[in-house]
Amino acid sequence: MIELKGISAKQGGFRLSVEGLLMRKGDFVAVLGNNGSGKSTFLSVLAGLKKFKGKYLLEGQSFQSISPLYRHRIISFLPQQTSLNMPFDVHYVVLTGRYPYTNGRNYKDEDIRATERILKEFDIFHLRHRQFNELSGGEKQRALLARVINRNSPIILLDEPLSGIDLKHQHEILNFLKRLCKDRIILIVIHDISLAIREFDRFLFFVKGTLAHDLQKRELDEEKLTRVFGVKVNFIRHKKGVFVYIEGDKYGFRNKKT
Amino acid sequence: MNQKRKIKRRTLELYTSEIAITVLSALLIVVSTVAIIKGAVRINFFDMSTIERDILLYVRVPRVLLAGLVGAALGFSGVLFQYVMKNPLADSFTTGVSASSAMGAVVAIVLGLGMLVPLFALTGGIIGLITVYKIASVRGKVQPITMLLAGIVISTFSSAIISFMKFLSNDAVSSIIFWLMGGFQSASISKAAVLGIILLLSYLLIRRDSLSLDIICFDDTTAISSGVAVARLRRKAFFIAALLTAFSVGYAGIIGFVGLIIPHIIRLLRFFKASELIPLSLLGGAFFMILNDLIARTILAEGQELPVGIITSAVGGMFFLYLLIKRRKELYYVD
Hints:
heterodimer; A: alpha/beta; 4-stranded antiparallel sheet; 31% strand; B: mainly alpha; ABC transporter involved in vitamin B12 uptake, BtuC; 2 strands; globular; disordered C terminus
């Protein structure tokens, strides 16, 4: 369980602020908002990578009182961008996700078995001997995602995990994450609203650094989304779900022009 | 058939680092033996005179030992500098630690305090290190690029001071020049012992961080969120590397290229993990240095010696050039 109260953190030109938020096991949460609205900053705070003011409790325990190594056993985090300047192979890159469980000197057989399972799950087992840096963008992203999931932590934070991944794998990965989420909390930053509406059940919307809305799927409506994103959002309801249609002009400018 | 070959390949992969360590250790033993047997004075091992025995025990053995240890220390420090700065071209030279150690040593020579050369070198090296560190660290974090730039500034400044002192004191010139080129003429068992202990402690301290050194090859956000205390690890590796460099320079002068080239060769042999890269660089550095010193003291007739730095730079430079041209793509990924 994650409990936040009066969280604020400074980032560049703006200040992140989250008045109150409660997340429980099984929550599969989409984090949405325009560029620079504070989504990444919010995940950084949750991952313990950024200083903040306010109350942040993990399972009732104050976040600051948990030792850094233990924190990273509980929380795994996929940043928006990752670079690696050593030609490690894919297998080793994914294996390093298990680091918080090691004694610092070597990985155990258990870690290697878990890694092979996860490689198969993300359909990159056949790439395991290839150099990570020689993979295509989408393959890299899948390897990094596998690396993060390999930690098997109860809280998983993913910053735009699906960018560059083809539709087939996006679909498989989301299904896998949903199954995984049964006894975990998973937060995912995502820009594709249609996909988000189809796959997620809880939505956090950020506007100018502030957590503006915390909504369940049924509470979503066109008006709120239009205000959050600054473009006219229309829902097209279909028996297979809701589709989103965005009107070209920026909302509010239409009347002035005509 | 195919399956069998696959299994064989797997097994080979699993043991390649052990094989490499065994092969390098064997080579090290061979080259050390040859280096002890060969020299300006011929030693009859089956019927030693007192002089021959003294030469063996007080000149040749300490020299080979010190050469091996300095080589290992430079290879080790090179690897560490490259991890800390995430830069394939980082080593004791580019951080400015070598040059500032040399400046300390030259000050000692000019002041006529020949006995205190290692101490002055260490002091100079540590002053250089702290300066670079202060400039390059922001809120406890070492910024790799700034550190490289600061290293260049320190090197240039130290070289200027050294040149100025050469200009000032004519009589000490030849001594300064020879010392700056590096060599093992002043080897002794006690020096070898001190360096040996420092090397052993450094290795034991760093071995615990093998996995985290691999993880700091990722960007900092990824490394920190993987559970690695990045800033602390960088500081630790940096100080150990500087300590190894200062002692190497203090005992054997500036010997270029070893810290840069040995880790590169090991990586080109496809060993990328710290748990393989560090021990192999230690062994490789020791082997390379003993071999170079052997060449330096036997290539000229009548017991004349070349400064070993000339050989390492010539051999190392040519090899490095070959690698750069032939296998540029595999050297390293820099972004």
